[in-house]
Amino acid sequence: MNLFLRLAWRNVWRQRRRTFLIAIGMGITMSLLVFYDGLIGGFEQAIYGNAIQLLGGNIQVHAPGYGEKAGRKPLLPLADPDAVVNAAEAHPDVVVASKRIVTGGMVTNREGAFAVSIIGVEVEKESRITPVSETITEGRYLNADDGDMIVIGQGLATAMDVKVGDRITLVGNSKNEQSRQRTMTVVGIYDVGVPSVEKGMIYMSLAEAQQLYGLNGQATEVVVSLKQIGQEASVITAINKTVPGYEVESWETGIPDLKQTMDMKTGVMGVFGVFMIGIVAIGILNLLMMAVFERTREIGIVGALGLKPREITILFLLEGILIGLMGAVLGAVLGTVFNGIFSVVGFDYSQFADLTEYTALISGSIYTQLVPMKVLQHALTVAIISALAALYPAIEASRREPAEALHYV
């Protein structure tokens, strides 16, 4: 085999221009696949990352029994929320972990009554990661010492015909199921471009929520924000190990609709990826077939010298594999460089942000993601395709009669 490998390596470099053209063709095609994956990853982080932060973070921690009553948003305080926060923030993949009080309620004014989720937040921490603080279009975001002040969405402000400085009545239940009512001042209006979210979520400071619902010093939820989607499992394991006894779930469980949408998108993109790989395979097959036909006389010579059909097959198969490996390496380098550049520079997507409800969550630019495992996967795929694509030309080459091949023009 070593002899055939040395012969194949020499043959690859005897026609340098042809070898370079084939390897460059494979490399460019593979680099486009790598870049495509990086771009899709960037879209996922931009759209779903913001959606997850808006709807409750990558991971949520609740008191035992919360899951059974989740639809009612019960005010079940955590036994030691600070211990949960410390356990989460000790993990290197965690950006921030913050305490919340989340419950259901209603806001009313002369325009009517509207059901909302009332969310008390740690202002300093959440202002670092929530899209709400970045999309305030009127007024301001919350301060930690704000009293009877709330931030509402543009959708709710339009429905209630209110503006910054107006006062609306907020009704909700305390942890003892007693009704609590308070008139609140609107200090800010956010616009994330998703009216269904804007109409259903209002925010106040954690201290105000604790005082309003009789939960002084307590919290009903800890939300954990991660650097990237997909890092949830290891963080959940670490939290369960350090502070056992709580209900810890990822956004995939807590926001099933978003998970379903993401799975559907991944399926569609997967089918599209298969088509791209099919095109790559056809291109590689054409390139290698062309190389075989160009070398018909050479095949006749090696056959006349005594090389058996099986040995000719091995020789051409090895040449195809070697060229495929060169193309895979070149594609991996080019794709990584492209992704590296656009992970810093980014694509300005702001002019397309209003196309759909989800794309409205993209804030400015898309930054490609570097996914080493995907690069290795594509390199292996190109190498295998090259081997399979080289098989047919190699068999064709071995079937040629030396006398006939020597007279081929």
Structure commentary:
The structure is a single chain. With 409 residues, the protein is of the alpha+beta class. 54% of the residues lie in helices and 19% in strands. It has 15 helices and 12 strands. The protein has helices at 2-14, 16-55, 81-89, 123-126, 131-134, 154-160, 195-198, 206-212, 232-242, 251-254, 256-294, 296-304, 309-345, 372-399, 402-406, and strands at residues 59-62, 94-109, 112-121, 136-139, 149-153, 167-173, 179-190, 201-205, 221-226, 247-250, 347-348, 365-366. Strands 1, 2, 3, 4, 5, 6, 7, 8, 9 and 10 form a 10-stranded mixed β-sheet that branches. A hairpin with a 2-residue loop joins strand 2 (94-109) and strand 3. The two termini are 31 Å apart. The model has no long low-confidence stretch (mean pLDDT 82).
Please tally the helical runs, counting DSSP H or I stretches of 4 or more residues.
15
Cα end-to-end separation = 31 Å
- What order do the helices and strands follow? HHEHEEHHEEHEEHEHEHEHHHHEEHH
- Radius of gyration, CA atoms, in whole angstroms: 30 Å
Mean pLDDT: 82
Outline the low-pLDDT stretches. Answer: none
Measured as a percent range, the helix fraction is 40-55%
Report the portion of residues in β strands: 15-25%
